[in-house]
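Bumping with the actual sequence this time:
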Amino acid sequence: MASTDPDELYTLRNLFWLGSFQQAINEGGRLNRLSDELKIERDEFVYRSYVGQGQYALVISEVDDDAPVNLRAVKLLAEYLENPAGTRDGVVETLGTWLTEKETRENSTVQLVAAIIYQREDLQKEAFTALKKQSTMEQTALWAQMCLQINRCDLAEQSFKKLEAVDEDATLTQLVGAWINLHKGGDNTKEAAYTYEELIDKFGSSLTLLNGLAVAKMHQKDYDEAQKRLQEALGKKSDDADALINLITCSAHMGKDDKEINRYQQLLYGAHPNHPYVVNMKAKEAEFDRLAAEYLEKEGLEEDAEGNLVKVGN
């Protein structure tokens, strides 16, 4: 991937990083007079935007097996996200091959996709190893995100300083700064909210920015404003996973009734069965049901027709 210096793909990259996927796709469609190298990068960001929209089948069908490795890496990501459980072993094996072969191991897109997939598979060591060179601003931003996920805010701040040294006004730099402020909590969340609001004023709202702003508002206990922003996000994409997850949290803090919260949960479960949040929640629900059944059996209890617990045989 190229640098973030202003060039023919600057707007395309920026739209993708902002989470404005359809605008990024539209921008890519207008970029025709490019060198062969830039055409590959253009296609990479367009296909990644389709992945961001959940259009996995489109990417899988359009990227040929003899396409440049940048595009095959995006296809591999689409295949994985479409069916994580069914493709996990093959995808991890392919990544291992690409990261060791001379022809592909230095490719920044391969490294980035590998880190994204390893991260979702909780292969933290492999994810950090894939990004050890942090050869692009996007790699550095993902590195910071992974550091925050393991509660190493100090390392994330080091990455933020690297991004600031390259371009303190860049969208990626601003986003990483907001992530760090959210992680720190307290008054720092006001600064995070300001960053998201400033980016929205400058570039327009997107799912990424609206969700980020909503999280900042929840940290500040401004749940009404958070709900407003999340509903705005659902207006852009009615089954957006992040918006639905955040609405579940926000609604619980607002004391909404179980029916409303369950509605968001069922929408999430139906639209995103492979999302890590859904997989984790279903595992916890199954474990709870198992423990409850064991308890009832041990105590000789069962539910009657009205849902009340009664002694077996009574």
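The tokens above came from a reply further down the thread. The chain is about 75% helix and 0% strand.
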